[in-house]
Specification:
14% of the residues lie in helices and 37% in strands. The termini are far apart. It has 2 helices and 9 strands; from the N terminus they run H-H-E-E-E-E-E-E-E-E-E.
Length: 134
């Protein structure tokens, strides 16, 4: 009888565990590494915008300690590598925190496999797409 009771308790505990707390969270290991800019999206205001490929050496390197460095400005969609940027990131709320001048707001990101989309604060949709290179 005790064995049946313990088995039932074990089954109930297994069923009651909810993994939804982890759903949608980006693991730190998913973001760690170097990402290269591959495309930008600008929308003229009618929803017709789409990602356009860019040729750029701009990269962002995310470190396991929650910091990042970039050979370009991560505060905007520029493709140049003339301004180095650094800061922190947060995998819980999926934000990048960099010194972006007077509007020092967190920049949001999403990761899908080896693709990261960074969303900027714009009136219309504007994003940069990065591909993980290592």
């Amino acid at each position: 009888m005790k064995q049946i009771l313990f088995t039932l308790i074990g089954i109930i505990l297994l069923i009651s565990c909810d993994s939804s707390d982890d759903a949608g969270n980006v693991l730190t290991s998913d973001i760690v590494g170097t990402w290269q800019l591959t495309a930008n999206l600008s929308d003229p205001g009618d929803g017709s915008g789409s990602f356009q490929s860019v040729s750029s050496n701009k990269t962002i390197t995310f470190n396991a300690d929650g910091t990042f460095t970039s050979n370009g400005d991560v505060c905007d969609m520029s493709i140049t590598t003339s301004t180095n940027t650094n800061g922190t990131y947060n995998t819980t709320d999926k934000t990048i925190n960099a010194n972006c001048g007077t509007t020092n707001l967190p920049i949001s990101y999403t990761i899908d496999n080896l693709t990261m989309d960074i969303s900027y604060f714009c009136i219309e949709a504007c994003q940069s797409r990065y591909r993980k290179i290592n």
